[in-house]
Amino acid sequence: MTNYIAAAAAALLLGLAADDASAADGGVRYVQANAGSSLAFVFTQADAANTGHFKTFATELQYDEANPTQGSLLVRVMIASLETHDEERDGILKDADMLDSKSHPAATYVARSFARNAAGGLEAVGKLTLRGVSRDLRLPLTLKPTANGLELSGQTVIRRLDYGVGQGDWKSTTSVGDEVRVEYKVALVRAAE
Predict the structure, then answer these.
(1) Of 53, 49, 45, 3, which Cα lies nearest the Cα of 186?
(2) Confidence category of residue 23, pLDDT binned at 50, 70, 90
(3) Which of 53, 58, 67, 144 has the largest CB neighbor count within 10 A?
(4) Phi and psi (nearest 5°) for 25?
């Protein structure tokens, strides 16, 4: 199973790299490790916080420690891999009125540069494409050295309705809130030359 996930992640990254050949040059190229990464989301349903995660996603980072604002970040997330520990809710979230995993099987985040925020932290400057809608998104990044590469972590808040996630009755925020917090921790290793 782990080999299948690793192979799927590699294939996803290759496809994303082909889609975005303009990724920044220079620095060290890192790819997501086979284990130790998580991509979770927190949303409000019926006035209660609920959590979920994506089981299949792939990340590639180009990073120059000497020049941290030069780099790129590519992420591809397979929508059908979402899990909230409620089978019925998972089906609703993947359905056409919500994330529409059949018509839009992957969400992507593509950043071609990084910037310093007001607090001196690092942010990826890019676009999130979800459900076929692309919007600018600055993604906070914390990078920590590890024995095998880097750990990338952070969190951000997006509004689901900005991406059309919620059609028909689901446009209402009465039962499901608009804001979704995304939390990420990704183990990265140096890419093979």
Answers:
(1) 53
(2) very low
(3) 58
(4) -95, 165
| Two structure tokens written together for 141 | 């990044």
Partners of residue 113 on adjacent β-strands = 125
Nearest Cα to Cα of residue 20 among 105, 106, 104, 110? 110
Write the single-letter amino acid at 165. V
DSSP per-residue string spanning 115-175: EE-TTS-EEEEEEEEETTEEEEEEEEEEEEE-SSEEEEEEEEEEEGGGGT---GGGG-SSS
What is the per-residue pLDDT across 72-130, written as a single tens digit (0 to 9) for each? Answer: 999 999 999 999 999 999 999 999 999 999 999 999 999 999 999 888 899 999 999 99
The closest of 145, 10, 143, 18 to 71, measured between CA atoms, is 143
Residue indicated by tokens 């089978």: 87
Residue whose structure tokens are 């891999």: 81
Q: What local confidence, expressed as pLDDT, does residue 25 receive?
A: 56
Q: Confirm if 153 and 185 have CB atoms less than 8 A apart.
A: yes
CB 121 within 8 A of CB 152: no
| Each residue's pLDDT tens digit, 50-68 | 999 999 999 999 999 899 8
- 123-132 burial, b if ≥16 CB within 10 A, otherwise e? bbebebbbbe
